[in-house]
Amino acid sequence: MKALILIGGEGTRLRPLTMDTLKCMAPIANRNFIEYQIALLKKYGINDIVLSVCYMPEKVKEIVGNGKKYGVRISYTAEKLPLGTAGAIKNAEKLLDETTIVMNGDILTDIKLDEMLECHISKNADATIALHEAADPSAYGLVITDAQGMITRFLEKPKESEITSKWINAGIYIFSRKVIDMIPSGLNVSLERQTFPLVIDTKMRLAAFKSSQYWLDIGKIEKYMQANFDVLQGRFESLFGDEIADTGIKTGHGSIIDDRAVLSSPVIIGKKCRVAAEARIERSIIWDNVKIGEGAVITNSIIGNGCVVEQGCVIINTVAGAGSVFTRFTRSGTK
Ligand code: GTP
Question: Helices in 188-246 by DSSP H: which ranges?
Answer without folding.
Answer: 196-201, 221-232
